[in-house]
Design brief:
179 residues, alpha+beta, globular
Amino acid sequence: MSRLYIKYVKEVRNELKNKFQYKNIMQVPRLEKVILNMGVGRATQDKSLLEEAVMHLTLIAGQKPVICSARKAIAGFKLKEYQSIGCKVTLRGKRMYEFMDRLFSIVIPLMRDFRGMPKKLDGRGNYTLGWPDITLFPEINLDSVKNNYGMDISFITTAKSDEEGYALLEALGMPFRKN
């Protein structure tokens, strides 16, 4: 079992139950899934860029991503309908908690001039952050990176409000910005 999941079960769940005065333990917000999304717009000209992005996302997530394609054609971007332009992977359960543990304890401390994550949740307790550089992940070999990519990381919770989602993520160890 992941350290983060054990922390959730032993500490965070009871702390949130007391804080929000829930009557039942099943009302306490929990993490449902973590979605890693990597858009590769330049893949319209060079297919090898998408293959490289899939390889790196597989290393980071520990499972093979799904290739995403364009829904409609956009002539200004030289984009055809159903053309492959990105990849995504959804993490649940054990892999989700292990990824979050690595993100909070290894990757985020490696960021230069880090002052905390912004506190912008989506209104329903979910949080998305744009990750500028995949080379901070220890799974990525710097020699294999030809093009630097960023990605979006979305934390989907069962929280009903931003306040509950913020409390859950902060209790799990998300380093939010201090006011």
